[in-house]
UniProtKB/TrEMBL annotation, chains A, B:
GO terms for biological process: response to amino acid. Keywords: DNA-binding, Transcription, Transcription regulation. It comes from Goodfellowiella coeruleoviolacea. This is DNA-binding transcriptional regulator, Lrp family. Residues 4-65 form the HTH asnC-type domain. The keyword Transcription regulation applies. Pfam families: AsnC_trans_reg, HTH_AsnC-type. Signal peptide: none annotated. GO terms for cellular component: cytosol. GO terms for molecular function: sequence-specific DNA binding.
Length: 153, 153
DNA sequence: CTTGAAAAAACGCGAGC
DNA sequence: GCTCGCGTTTTTTCAAG
């Protein structure tokens, strides 16, 4: 059902590096005609391998210069779904994961400045199921990139 | 130079939610003609506010089901640029940040499975400037989304 | 400086093979 | 998976606010 061959990988690579390239351009890069590329892309979208296309925005330019990673410790045992439901309404939460180790979850926060970050942290800490948080403020973004096309997979 | 008004924000929102939408579609959403939208998008690309367009890929589908966050502690004082240069060659590193607190950096790793993750961690620890690492393995992805259009910015 | 309208050129998308 | 053809879109040029 979700078979992804070498050509699909190359098509995905093209789209990751430029989501607005035309089917003809992709076809030229992978050695297929434009309609053939479109059919594969449609299939990849159907099967969920491709989840969509988005613009990469400079966070600084829109006033999202400050970010932090927050270890979240919950009260007692909480289901992942419950944590997700509680984090979803907070707009500063750009990512969240349940993790191994002492913490229950890691939350990635993005805010416009330190003050906004503080506000977001207060709101996060006021969430019922959350007991305690440990914040790590990001000083500089060193690297941020899509996963490599593939490798030893 | 990098003035971004309300219409630009709405155009960016459209492109973030679907990078492949046509200029006519965007124009209809923001109340501009297609050429006017294109000019603004070109300008946003020129000024670096928009950095490009990419496909959102399901990590599972390409064999990137396992990820981890790693606190990196360096030997002595190391410049951010040096850390970046040392991390860039490692394909499993999808993001890295210098941070406040005890650690020097947080590295986001993505691997195909636990074994691959272990290999990647070994390679990471073998980097000269790195003294010690503390790994946190991700159990489940709760949330992952682009920053909200904007807010109290 | 920005917009809207109209031109040619390129692209998307279905049918047929 | 490829070719063909029609309708739509993009993109450039031009004139106006």
């Amino acid at each position: 059902m979700l078979r992804v061959d070498t050509i699909d990988h190359r098509i995905i690579s093209c789209l990751v590096s430029n989501a607005r390239s035309s089917y003809a351009e992709i076809g030229a890069a992978v050695g297929l005609s434009a309609p053939a590329v479109k059919r594969r892309v449609d299939r990849l979208l159907d099967t969920g391998v491709l989840q969509g296309f988005t613009a990469v925005v400079d966070p600084e330019a829109l006033g999202w210069g400050t970010e932090a990673f927050v270890e979240v410790h919950c009260r007692g045992n909480v289901a992942p779904g419950e944590i997700k439901a509680n984090l979803e309404p907070l707009p500063e939460v750009v990512a969240a994961y349940t993790v191994s180790g002492a913490a229950d979850a890691i939350v990635h926060l993005r805010a416009s400045d330190i003050h906004h970050l503080e506000t977001a942290l207060e709101r996060l800490r006021s969430v019922e199921i959350i007991d305690r948080t440990v914040s790590t403020v990001v000083l500089s973004r060193l690297l941020e990139r899509p996963p490599a096309p593939d490798q030893q997979a």
